[in-house]
């Protein structure tokens, strides 16, 4: 079973709308969360990271984290067609002998329709 | 911006053949990683390294070897390529393990026939 689960698998939103993506870890060792964005045919690029409970905003993007439930969400307001991409959530933590590696979810495919 | 390059960008290999994928970074990062990406599985870590001449197994190391001859270079070796190794392979680098942004290369699309 995936240690990092994302929902929904895919999402269609109208241009100018709000996109909300979710991510949960099943591993209590996790203490860092990352959101990467991957446009079609390109490599992943880090979008936002969050380590503390609460909210972090950067422009049109807002990330929430609830460490008690190991749940993070990414919200994109005023969505643009250029936001269409695969959004990957990743988590890292002290996995004992496995160290502090990043574990990626399968991703949410966002499509913003003009 | 941090720079990671990969070669080749695409390759067709025959089953049972040897394949070497190369990665070069100019970020002066200690950590380098090899991932594969498949539909339905996301990004999975194959091998990583935190210092030259040393490599560590990731989550799916079977069928792969890695080599880190210098801080800048990290190779992934498929000694006996198999059909199941058809995938897109990404190299990445970072300053720290799991606590720092990873910078990805452009990827190598490998097709094993």
Top keywords for this entry?
heterodimer; A: 114 residues; mainly beta; 6-stranded mixed beta sheet; 5-stranded antiparallel beta sheet; 0% helix; B: 113 residues; 7-stranded mixed beta sheet; 4-stranded antiparallel beta sheet; 11 strands; 54% strand
Q: What do these coordinates show?
A:
- The complex is a heterodimer of chains A (114) and B (113).
- With 114 residues, chain A is an all-beta fold.
- Chain A is globular.
- In chain A, a hairpin with a 6-residue loop joins strand 4 and strand 5.
- In chain A, strands 2, 4, 5, 9, 10 and 11 form a 6-stranded mixed sheet that branches. In chain A, strands 1-3-8-7-6 form a 5-stranded antiparallel sheet, with no helix packed on it.
- The mean pLDDT of chain A is 92.
- Chain A has no helices and 11 strands.
- By secondary structure, chain B is mainly beta.
- In chain B, 0% of the residues lie in helices and 54% in strands.
- Chain B is built from no helices and 11 strands.
- The N and C termini of chain B lie far apart (36 Å).
- In chain B, 40% of the residues are buried.
- The chains are: A mainly beta (114), B mainly beta (113).
- At the A-B interface, strand 5, strand 9 and strand 10 of A face strand 5 and strand 10 of B.
């Amino acid at each position: 079973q995936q240690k990092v689960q994302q929902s929904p698998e895919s999402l269609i939103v109208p241009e100018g709308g709000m996109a909300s993506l979710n991510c949960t870890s099943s591993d209590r060792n996790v203490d860092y969360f990352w959101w990467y964005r991957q446009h079609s045919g390109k490599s992943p690029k880090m979008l936002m990271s969050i380590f503390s409970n609460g909210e972090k905003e950067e422009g049109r993007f807002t990330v929430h984290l609830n460490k008690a439930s190991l749940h993070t969400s990414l919200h994109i307001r005023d969505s643009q067609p250029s936001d269409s991409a695969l959004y990957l959530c990743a988590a890292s933590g002290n996995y004992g002998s496995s160290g502090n590696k990043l574990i990626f979810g399968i991703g949410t495919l966002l499509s913003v329709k003009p | 911006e941090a720079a990671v390059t990969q070669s080749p960008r695409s390759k067709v290999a025959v089953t049972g053949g040897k394949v070497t994928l190369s990665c070069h970074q100019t970020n002066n990062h200690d950590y380098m990683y090899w991932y594969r990406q498949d539909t339905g599985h996301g990004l999975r870590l194959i091998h990583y390294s935190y210092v030259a001449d040393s490599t560590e197994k990731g989550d799916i190391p079977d069928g792969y070897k890695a080599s880190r001859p210098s801080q800048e270079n990290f190779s992934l070796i498929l000694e006996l390529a198999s059909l199941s190794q058809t995938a897109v392979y990404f190299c990445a680098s970072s300053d720290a393990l799991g606590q720092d942004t990873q910078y990805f290369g452009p990827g190598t699309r490998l097709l094993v026939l």
